[in-house]
Amino acid sequence: MGAVPVYRWRLAPDGLATFRQLRARGLRPGGQPVAAQLERPRKRRGPLVAYLYRVDLAKPVRPMTPARRAALAKANTARRICPTCRRDAGYRIPTSLGMCTPCAFPEQPERT
Predict the structure, then answer these.
(1) CA-to-CA dists, residue 57 to 3, 11, 37, 53, 64, angstroms
(2) I need a surface site. Which of 20, 30, 35, 63 has the fewest CB within 10 A?
(3) Where do runs of H (alpha helix) occur along the chain?
(4) pTM for the structure as a whole
C-alpha cells in the first residue's frame, strides 16, 4: 500500500478537493482512491484529517429519482417516531437518548 501525500491546512495544491468541496460543485469521488490527506493541527489533541480527491476524476452526482426521494422521506419519518410512546416527536429523535425528550426526562414539565 503506497503512502498518500500529506498537506498542511490551506496548503493543498489546486486540482484536489475534499468530499464536501466536491459535493458543493455537484460532484462525487466516484470510487477513486484518496489522492492526498489534509491535516489541521490542534493544540492538545491529534490533528484533524480530511481526505482529498482529484477533481478531474470526480463524477457528477447521481440525480434524485422519485423512488429514492420516497425512500428518503420514509426513512426520515421513521427517525421521528419515538419507540417508547410511538408518537411523532416533531423532530429527529437523538440517537444518544433513543427516545423523545418527554420520555427520556419525564420528571421535567413540558414546555409549550
Answers:
(1) 19, 21, 17, 8, 22
(2) 63
(3) 19-24, 66-78, 101-104
(4) 0.68
